[in-house]
Design a protein that fits this description.
Blueprint: H1 12-20, H2 23-33, H3 39-46, H4 50-62, E1 66-72, E2 77-82, H5 84-87, H6 90-104, H7 119-125, E3 137-140, E4 143-145, E5 153-158, H8 182-191, H9 193-198, E6 201-207, H10 211-221, E7 226-229, H11 234-239, E8 243-246, E9 249-252, E10 255-260, E11 265-269, H12 275-298
Parallel strand pairs: 5-6, 6-7
Antiparallel strand pairs: 1-2, 3-4, 5-10, 8-9, 10-11
Helix pairs in contact: 8-12
């Protein structure tokens, strides 16, 4: 990575700010992480001048945050992708999002949920019509898997955290609004898994917990479906999922996505004030989705 001199060269904060401290830089990293990789797409998304975008992309490549990949030879066209250093910025992006949601858009309260009419809720619901990115999440030790399954539909429910023992939860967990209820949500999905299968849907749970924690919980709660770890926040950053910080870790706020085999998100449930009721709500939405072809055929 290209070194930049500063009055306080030994200060890591100052050195990092020299690379990513400019307004457009972090927004470019955010959008590249979400799968917007081509110049024209970035320019349209950011509404930034082509000159400024060219300068910022060149600087990020020079600093080792982005890499260029040729996708067209004549004339040469490049896509921009995050390097390991770029992916290392994902916790920074999530920290900024959490801080903004809590202190600028919220009242400063630490919460694992959001208001139904909040700006965060409106932003999250705009995921409808977008695609789940082509990434893999940790499914165990040295095992990774696509969050989208092989069925016609995939129900991805994101949850703050579920542990095999009550003593494993962070201190004060039960006092954070919306944090409690993960075990009940997981077992409700478990008990109704056959109904989801009848609608051609696979259920996948996603949290930022370590895979071994998820495996211990799955064994204790007899969870028959996949639990995937977004411990590196790749899915969270790509979809700009709402998170909160507690117990020295970023946690996903509770929400549910319904995506088709084409990866397109068809429904988003957020916020979820009642985890058990949300499972029933998800089944109702699946019934509507799977009934549409039959209704058209009989029309």
């Amino acid at each position: 990575m290209r070194s930049r001199k500063s009055p306080e060269a030994e200060c890591a904060i100052e050195q990092a700010a020299a690379v990513v401290g400019e307004w457009w830089t972090l927004l470019i990293v955010r959008d590249v992480a979400s799968g917007i990789n081509r110049f024209d797409e970035l320019q349209a998304e950011l509404q930034i001048s082509r000159r400024v975008l060219s300068e910022r992309l060149a600087a990020l490549v020079a600093d080792g945050v982005l890499e260029r990949r040729l996708y067209q030879a004549r004339p040469p066209r490049y896509e921009y992708h995050l390097t390991p250093a770029g992916y290392g910025l994902t916790p920074v992006l999530m920290a900024l999002q959490d801080w903004g949601a809590r202190f600028l858009l919220g009242d400063g309260t630490l919460t694992a949920t959001g208001g139904p009419r909040s700006q965060e809720a409106r932003r999250v619901r705009k995921m409808v019509g977008t695609d789940v990115p082509q990434i893999t999440l940790a499914a165990g030790e040295d095992v990774r898997a696509d969050p989208i399954g092989t069925s016609d539909w995939t129900v991805i429910y994101c949850y703050p955290g579920a542990h095999a023992t009550s003593g494993a939860y962070p201190a004060g967990w039960s006092e954070i609004p919306g944090a409690a209820g993960c075990t009940l949500e997981a077992t409700t999905f478990r008990d109704r898994i056959d109904e989801f299968a009848a609608h051609g849907a696979e259920v996948v749970g996603v949290s930022t917990q370590w895979p071994q924690e998820q495996a211990a919980f799955a064994a204790t709660a007899r969870v028959p479906y996949r639990l995937l770890s977004d411990q590196d926040l790749q899915l969270a950053v790509a979809l700009r999922l709402p998170t909160f910080h507690a117990g020295a870790r970023n946690h996903l706020k509770r929400l549910t996505l319904i995506a088709g085999a084409d990866r397109r998100i068809r429904h988003v449930l957020y916020p979820i004030p009642d985890p058990v009721a949300s499972v029933e709500h998800t089944l109702v939405l699946l019934e509507r989705l799977t009934a549409r072809p039959a209704m058209r055929a009989g029309a």
